[in-house]
Amino acid sequence: MLQHRRIALGLLLAGTLISTGCSAAADSGAPPADLKAKLSKHINREITSISKTPIKGLYEVVIDKREIIYSDAKGEYIVQGDLVDLAKRISLTKEREAELSVTDFSKIPLADGIKEIRGDGSRKLVVFSDPDCPFCKKLEQQSLASIDNVTIYTFLFPLSIHPDAERKSRLIWCADDQATAWKGFMFQNQLPDNKGECPNPVAKNLKLGESLGINGTPALIFENGRIVAGAVPGDVIDRLLNEAKAEAASKKK
């Protein structure tokens, strides 16, 4: 039986503060050396890191590079939820999730994506997409339809839940005009006429996505390295593209 119990975040924090008499600004110190081993007995996923929080005795546990939970020092309790700084009125959990969802854009092998240039192509966007993913089609047909002045690199990322997606990905990649083939399928459900037997990066894309913590589609990566999951609205994508471009430009100065 799993001995850990999910308890309300507020109750745990209140109990911690009462028992220790410490404020939320107290230094919790380094996590116990055996905490990861204890948690691993009950969490059947990769524990990426364990680090202190502003609350004594409470530790941040990052799972699969992206997900955050919290644990006591003995690994007897886990907490799922947001850790909120009431004075600043911010979620420390959400801030950390944003930090974790960042990668080095310059290290992404853009040649392994289907390249489409719109307008002056000055902004850059990487999209991990599955041809049989309905949310990916929504992203293409709605969210990305009005986006201009951008270079989009679509990384074919067939999920195992879509058994025919890998074959379709190969057919699209092997087309003479990959961008047109991709659009043809996402908008009109038409596949190019070829055998799909050319060299392709599909297997590499799956490994790359896994290394980035991507386990679903669509997933968008902006020039500043920010990773955003889901069929994000077009106006949000446009804003994030502008922010990423400005941030990238400021780093070059």
UniProtKB/TrEMBL annotation:
Organism, as annotated: Chitinilyticum piscinae
UniProt subcellular location: Periplasm
Family according to the record: Belongs to the thioredoxin family. DsbC subfamily.
CDD domains, alphabetized: DsbA_DsbC_DsbG (cd03020)
Record domain Thioredoxin-like fold: where: 118-241
Annotated signal peptide: 1-24
Protein name: Thiol:disulfide interchange protein
Keywords, comma-separated and alphabetical: Disulfide bond, Periplasm, Redox-active center, Signal
Main location: periplasm
Function: Required for disulfide bond formation in some periplasmic proteins. Acts by transferring its disulfide bond to other proteins and is reduced in the process.
GO CC terms: periplasmic space
Domain of life: Bacteria
Pfam families assigned: DsbC_N, Thioredoxin_2
UniProt domain Disulphide bond isomerase DsbC/G N-terminal: residue ranges: 28-93
